[in-house]
Specification:
- 40% of the residues lie in helices and 12% in strands.
- The protein is an alpha/beta fold.
- The chain folds into two domains: 233 residues, Type I PLP-dependent aspartate aminotransferase-like (Major domain) (Aspartate Aminotransferase, domain 2, 3-Layer(aba) Sandwich); 131 residues, Aspartate Aminotransferase, domain 1, CATH 3.90.1150.
- The strands form five sheets. Strands 1-9-8-5 form a four-stranded mixed sheet. Strands 3-2-4 form a three-stranded parallel sheet, covered by helices on one side.
- Helix 5 links the parallel strand 2 and strand 3.
- The two termini are 37 Å apart.
- InterPro entries: DegT/StrS_aminotransferase, PyrdxlP-dep_Trfase, PyrdxlP-dep_Trfase_major, PyrdxlP-dep_Trfase_small.
- Its EC number is 2.6.1.90.
- It comes from Tautonia plasticadhaerens.
- This is dTDP-3-amino-3,6-dideoxy-alpha-D-galactopyranose transaminase.
Length: 395
């Protein structure tokens, strides 16, 4: 039976929104931790220690233990984490950093903030992470770091990248902004290179109540310098030894992240179950998600699948009440901000295909079976319909 909404819109019931499914639901997450979270925030307010302080130190210790690193240095964003890590790796004006064009642009902002230039290696077409086969030919005397991105929650192929870096004396900095709790050959993402950089933007697998980030490292000297740089490069109060930054983590974020960190393992398992169900239910459709590579633990920050008619699929899913997103439709090398690098369409074909075809389906730990059933039903209705229409046109 058509609803009043159907009648007003003139659409057939088959096209009407069914169970509305948000792309992400932070309110559901908050409802599940409301009491603990509000208690933690009240404690910060009563302490009146709002920048750094014991709440941040407690979170840093807990997160270092969680990922398996000796040190964690909390900062005010994932972008700041990358910036400071590159400085500590010795990257400066005129240098080059090898990274990928299929990433959020913050990866390359950090390179630019350090005064260096990004040099791009394409991603491989299976995992959507840095293709190690392309890296070595890009190394020059100006190369000061290799910056792979653990895209969508899956670690890059760090083994060969670390070997290349070691052979050339070039540090590897991991962009683990989307990979909290991910793993590579049994080790935590972010702990294999000189530094691992995390974002705690609210929508991340471990999200703050605003902006926050962290750098993890096993190098004590690097950790000491990171702590100084984030706080105006003070070796002691009012003594500034080099150019520093105001990149401190707020105590409120430290307290909130500590509450959420205790639940991250269960949230990650929920993500992995949901992703596995998507893969099973949608595996026969002509959509291509990244495969979980052998030896890597994918934490499914995003469930992204490729299809040539992405925009049409997205439109039809929205009509059915399913929210989707794009990560990332314009690779960095084609962004206007980096036009000075001189790249053209076709330079990095895998990244460009992902940009044209990527579609992120709803996936969040609080997602119910009913919600996922609604997404699966909508996708299984829309994709074959579009594929049949495409085949007819091709004939």
């Amino acid at each position: 039976m058509a609803t009043s909404t159907d009648q007003q819109s003139g659409r057939a019931g088959a096209l009407a929104p069914r169970l509305p499914v948000p792309f992400f639901d932070l309110k559901a997450q908050f409802d599940g931790i409301r009491e603990d979270l509000l208690d933690a925030l009240a404690g910060v307010a009563e302490s009146t220690q709002y920048a750094l302080g014991p709440e941040v130190e407690a979170f840093e210790a807990a997160f270092a233990d969680f990922v398996g690193a000796r040190h964690c240095v909390g900062v005010n964003s994932g972008t700041s984490a990358l910036h400071l890590a590159l400085i500590c790796a010795g990257v400066g004006p005129g240098d080059e950093v090898i990274t990928v064009p299929m990433t959020f642009i913050a990866t390359t902002w950090a390179i630019s903030y350090a005064g260096a230039n990004p040099v791009f290696a394409d991603v491989d077409p299976v995992s959507y992470t840095m293709d190690p086969r392309q890296v070595e030919r890009l190394i020059t005397r100006r190369t000061k770091a290799i910056l792979p991105v653990h895209l969508y929650g899956q670690p890059a192929d760090l083994g060969p990248l670390l070997e290349i870096g070691s052979r050339h004396g070039i540090p590897v900095i991991e962009d683990a902004a989307q990979a909290h709790g991910a793993g590579y050959e049994g080790r935590g993402a972010g702990t294999l290179g000189l530094c691992g950089c995390f974002s705690f933007y609210p929508g991340k697998n471990l999200g703050a109540l605003g902006e926050a980030g962290a750098v993890v490292t096993d190098d004590t000297r690097v950790a000491d310098r990171l702590r100084a740089l984030r706080d105006h490069a003070q070796s002691k109060r009012y003594h500034h030894d080099e150019l520093g930054f105001n990149y401190r983590m707020d105590a409120i974020q430290g307290a909130a992240l500590a509450v959420k960190l205790r639940r991250l393992d269960s949230w990650t398992e929920a993500r992995r179950r949901l992703a596995s169900r998507y893969l099973q239910a949608l595996g026969d459709l002509p959509m291509q998600p990244p495969a979980e590579a052998t030896g890597r633990r994918h934490v499914w920050h995003l469930f992204v699948a490729l299809h040539p008619k992405r925009d049409l699929i997205r439109q039809k899913l929205e009509e059915r009440g399913v929210q989707t997103a794009l990560h990332y439709p314009i690779p960095v090398h084609l962004q206007k901000a980096y036009a000075h690098l001189g790249h053209r369409p076709g330079d990095f074909p895998v990244s460009e295909q992902i940009g044209r075809e990527c579609l992120s389906l709803p996936l969040f730990p609080e997602m119910t079976a009913e919600q996922q059933d609604a997404v699966i039903a909508a996708v299984r209705e829309v994709v074959p319909e579009i594929s049949r229409a495409r085949d007819t046109i091709d004939e």
